[in-house]
Automatic annotation (TrEMBL):
Subunit record text: Homotetramer.
Protein species of origin: Eubacterium maltosivorans
Binding site for Mn(2+): 170, 201
Residues bound to substrate: 94, 148, 283
Protein name (Swiss-Prot/TrEMBL): 6-phospho-alpha-glucosidase
Keyword terms of this UniProt record: Cobalt, Glycosidase, Hydrolase, Iron, Manganese, Membrane, Metal-binding, NAD, Nickel, Transmembrane, Transmembrane helix
Amino acid sequence: MTQKYAVTVAGGGSTFTPGIVLMLLKESSRFPIRKIMLYDNDPGRQKVIAEACGIYLRENAPEIEFGYTDDPREAFTEIDFVLAHIRVGKYAMREKDEKIPLKYGVVGQETCGPGGIAYGMRSIGGVLEILDYMEAYSPEAWMLNYSNPAAIVAEATHRLRPKSKILNICDMPIDLEEKMAGIAGLKSRKEMQVGYYGLNHFGWWHQIYDKAGNDLMPVIRAYIAENGFPVSAEQHVDDSWAHTFKMAREVYAIDPETIPNTYLKYYLFPYEIAAGLDPEYTRANEVIDGREKKIFSVCREIIEKGTSSGSGFEADAHATYIVDLARAIAENTLERFLLIVPNEGAIENFERSAMVEIPCIVGKNGYEKICQGRIPRFQKGMMEQQVSVEKLVVDAWIEGSYQKLWQALTLSKTVPSAAVAKIILDEFIQANQGYWPELT
Ligand code: NAD
Ligand code: G6P
Ligand code: MN
């Protein structure tokens, strides 16, 4: 009999949970599931999502055991995988992460610049807590983490829980690779073999081949030089995302040898981006008025009607990479993924202890890194600055150091001066009371 897996979704109340649960069902021939458990520390929020998922599962896969809880023991006992997508502080705090810097003309973004730093200071404790629960109740389990800010979370978990079975992964390169496969006339990103180096939300493709070994970079570069990335139908569809994809053209122009991750726009055009944002209505507001409203109203409708049929509940087609990754571990598929891992020489001329995003081969015993060689001066310079920001945030969290956090903010390429960094920091401290460690 083939093995069936038990999965806990941490952050059960997330807007992404229904899409993930349906995706797990859809992919169950590749990755058989015996149990899905949702865990969240906000039981009220989770209940809506979970009750609706429960109805869907009873109607479509009654053989799968399903439950939801805010009790860690119940959530993490006898499971094989934790899929972690928590947002410590939820959208209310994301809004502050974005709006406080913007008041001072500084990029307001959930993972880049000051917003990501503030979010990191909240997220580290939340992710460590879940990792500890998993290890206490299911020591053999693996955590697939895509809770943000992934760069800071990865640095913190690597430093504080170096032996933990956690893989940190981001879906942005996956979406961009799908787009590039389309540009090159391929059906899927899986038909490409890529070389990529960087940090999370801060990286570059430097090689892209098809299965026959043909170089796809020329055709992709020509397209991006002209158009940026295309917008696709399923994911990252709002106007603000369309802007991001288009702007890849300007980001690309700075180094036409490589293809940039779209998040680099925040670091390379911080003032232009900030000037174009509405300080009263940021991405958090878009998500609250868009995705959150939609998902919660669909869930409430399912609960009221007592059935999910005709609800328009949809599998997150784009999230199949999570099943690919879980299968890689469970079935030793040795598939390649971009993971956020300790460098240790994989990028030859870059700090050994940095957490870098590079291609890895994943199997039963974890990952093997694929060396990316030497990187150019421009990328190296940018990465050195940014990795120092990320390391200083983790230092600040561990030591409770105001000074280190001020340094982190000052060093961010998105912040114009130490004075502005200090103003933002002091406001963040007020806003994050109860979420951040006390800083002295
Ligand atoms: P959301 O606010 O809808 O959901 C997050 C859930 O986490 C909430 O229900 C909240 O109560 C819960 N939570 C917060 N702290 C917790 C804790 N300590 N323990 C358990 N549960 C906790 O947010 P969302 O927009 O659905 O995003 C969820 C997360 O996924 C975010 O971190 C987001 O940045 C991340 N994300 C990452 C990627 C990626 O590629 N890396 C892609 C999409 C989303
Ligand atoms: C991409 C990134 C994620 C990020 C998400 C934000 O998928 O890779 O790390 O969380 O975008 O999307 P949102 O719709 O919440 O702004
Ligand atoms: Mn990401």
